[in-house]
């Protein structure tokens, strides 16, 4: 029935007055009770925001309602003391006939007459659950049946049941006979009889007095009386049984009528007949609903609640009972937020007491009641669940071990616990996984506090009894649980010896690293460090350091023993690895010891591999506990700074994320991106709270918060032409200020230590200092003026010293330090490096300055002495960002190599491991290993490979050294330089024996022949020169049209020389006459490698044209063309018996071919390869067969040894760096020497029993 016209006109007339004054939430409560408004309608109006907006929405709804709604609205105004407003509506009250009105049940009357509890004083609707219950109740419209609402203690089942039936349409269509509520609880039979007698008496009150009967005397009689009343007198009514515990109680109501019950035991209706429907009540409210309850209790706005409110909801997982209990307490003591949060965190449940709408005085009583109904033997089993961790789901197999029961029996017991809402089950997994609600677990821990140690001891002993010395490694849910939590159980059981034995074992590290992330292992050593240190703190730190520095390698599941052989000789990790390697080598397993590793020192503390793709930014939180990182993957991730364990991951932007920064209180993170947006995230909730997307029109390069919370601002800079530096107040939708001054992209911006100034670094060659308060330009530092010429100068970044008096700026290959007040340049930091400065960062607590270079290195400099104090080598690509920890003890660096590294600055030193270039030569002589290579300072070094001792070091050369070779017979070393100069030096005196001029461009290769009398060199200038270096006589071999990368003397014809070039040709020369004998057009692309067979009858070439060719040394014709490689073929090698050829390409693939017919024999690692193996870490640059032809060694990103017959990898050595160029192999195939791209020398020796 539509609203009367007069009533409608009245509402329109006084609408403005009503909107100004009424509080809709109070009015709507009455209208819902009268059945003229649904909970969904109420929820929609509540979502409108401010009170006035809600009032507008309510009046809009009223205009669409009928006369009953108008009357209910009028009555609500009177009840809420809006008498003046009600008087405005009184004259136009609809005239409704008593009979017409009576035909529609009054919801409030129905609820009252049926004994349905009123809404709690503080009520928050749960519309989704209410609608689910109603859907099930509508199923009872045509036939009797049962609707079960089940859930754990305090989940709000009773409130939900009463709210679901507070619905006019439901009553009218399904239950016009009424709603009858009966609270049951835990009852004995006499008490149950009294309950049913009471219900029967209530139902008989509306009947004629002649039909009244005496009260039933037995349960059977009561059951029949109730059946008669429900079926004959109230045939279309609903009986609600609240808080049912026992199926025997439920049988007394099995009378073929419509019943809804609330219970903690979902299986109760198995014992009764009829249709059955279920609704599970979630154990907790979402955060918004939980905060709404607290706000209503404390008469506050949600946004006005203290931070403790959110913590309370989070701590109790949104339990309606706990939130309501604490809300009621806070209503009386509003200043006790922190106190009640502490009680909750400390599991002091007895102090969280009494809610008038609940049957138990305190939370612990409600929990205990659920457990007391279990059989005694099951109560003991339930007690064992005290040892579980929060939010951890376990399979039945784990509990089968713990309880020493068959899995089938365990599953039955767990089903009982689940049915009684004492346990939860995740049905989305196979096998099913079981878990406790936090409150249940907290209660168990509190109840069994004195037995915690013994309960954990039982877990460990049961595990040891079953698995003895062999840990489960299947990778199923059970084995994952034991591998993850066994150490925790041992620690909590105080089984210190067992814990030492386990965690000081390389076997355990191997097992756990194969099944879980390395971060879990590192966390174990941190969490149990205090216990382990009592046994041996040195060993604990050795294991922890091994994991921290190799965690990124462990992700690829390498041979852990081989990885551990790179640890220092004094390390327990190395000792165990050496023992295992010796034992396994007796069974034919390959292992290699790094002989000269003691020369390598590292500041690196932790290596994290957080993203796929380049990392552009990483930063510490201000408490130093977390690290945030972002990059090309478009994601933002947050990790623990101690272990690298991931705490948060967000898909942050639609394009690359270029920078991230923590707010000074660590509650927020800002990100900026190539998508031109700036976003601000809440760290704890992993939630986006602000987006600034309209002001920057080009990519946003950098963002930084102020250093203190005194006035929280965010600075950003971008590639915009003019409006490229902005300062944002997070409470405003647009930027607070725009700094004008730069007319080119701005790469970096940062606040001064006191937050008064913002510095900006631009492609226009300047650093500008802006006053934050006024946005005015204060000073300009013209970095470009320090350079000669008109070339472009891009200032990458600037950084303030801790006292705010100096500022360092990075551009090109130098860093300049300026006085802020005078803008005078104080000094320049210019290293010998040829690479560009990528970033610099000043330490907030000391005089250290960190500098990152494009050649992947990081250096630490002392700003007082202007001296370098440390090299931080380890990154394998450009280092994009640096940051010191707040206390200055650590330095963080992130790189395009996809890693974040932490360096310990308190252990700074200038590395004794001088970085070497990869072009090298090696002589293996008896027990000696002599290595020659240039270092990063462009000095030639000759070293004892075993001891690491420098035998000779030249002066720094003016031109870059590009190749070197040793002559054992004459104790000399030769070197070739970029300017074409060739020198021969005496070792170890360093005396210059010859300086050979002739080449006009870079010398790529040099080699002594004829016992050192002749030196052959090849060059970028397309020539080969043969020097009688002692006399200065030289023969020039002319003919190649492009650079000559290599040459080799024919083994069966010592007077002939083979050379190959980027011009695609191979040429044969007579070394005596210098005449060209053969000009072979070998390939369409550059010839990248060539190798002559051991007997000198064949040679093979590889090319950028992706082919391999085999040539005859008699006819100089092509014998085979080998195709199949998908990339440039960069390396090749004949086996010693001449039957096979191995080739390697730029895709990391190695192929083995038959020399006889050119057929493909094997593709190494084609089967069972992982992501790393498939790439070999990069190009395959060198290959060598063992003398017996059974093994093959290859280099690329790392070194691999292969079984030639099977084509399977036998062992892998992971260097600190990548891009190995060449490997030198001893004649007996036992010793291997190479240098990586960060300059570390590796002398590896096969472990032999």
Globally, the shape reads elongated
Catalogue the unreliable spans.
97-104, 354-358, 1167-1174
Span between termini: 98 Å
CATH class of the domain at 605-909: Mainly Beta
Q: In terms of structural class, how would the helical and strand content be classed?
A: alpha+beta
Q: What is the gyration radius calculated from CA atoms?
A: 40 Å
Q: What's the overall average pLDDT, rounded? A: 88
CATH architecture descriptor text of the domain at 605-909: 7 Propeller
For CATH, the homologous superfamily of the domain at 605-909 is named as YVTN repeat-like/Quinoprotein amine dehydrogenase
Helix fraction by DSSP (H/I, runs of at least 4): 25-40%
Strand order of the largest sheet: 2-3-4-1-5
Largest sheet data: 5 strands, parallel
Q: How many distinct beta strands?
A: 68
- Report the CATH topology name of the domain at 605-909: Methylamine Dehydrogenase, Chain H
Number of helices: 31
Q: How large is the share of residues in beta strands? A: 25-35%
Write up this protein.
- The protein is α+β, with helices and mostly antiparallel strands.
- Among the domains are: 87 residues, Death Domain, Fas (Orthogonal Bundle); 167 residues, Rossmann fold (3-Layer(aba) Sandwich); 77 residues, Orthogonal Bundle (Helicase, Ruva Protein, domain 3), CATH 1.10.8.430; 112 residues, Orthogonal Bundle (Arc Repressor Mutant, subunit A); 89 residues, Serine Threonine Protein Phosphatase 5, Tetratricopeptide repeat (Alpha Horseshoe); 305 residues, Methylamine Dehydrogenase, Chain H.
- 27% of the residues lie in helices and 30% in strands.
- The protein has 31 helices and 68 strands.
- The strands form 17 sheets. The chain has a five-stranded parallel β-sheet with strand order 2-3-4-1-5, sandwiched between helices. Strands 9-68-67-66 form a four-stranded antiparallel β-sheet, with no helix packed on it. Strands 10-37-36-35 form a four-stranded antiparallel β-sheet.
- Helix 2 crosses helix 5 and helix 15 packs parallel to helix 17.
- The longest helix is centred in the middle third of the chain and has 26 residues.
- GO terms for molecular function: ADP binding; ATP binding.
- Oligomeric Apaf-1 mediates the cytochrome c-dependent autocatalytic activation of pro-caspase-9 (Apaf-3), leading to the activation of caspase-3 and apoptosis. This activation requires ATP.
- It is found in: Cytoplasm.
- It holds the Pfam family APAF1_C.
- Its main location: cytoplasm.
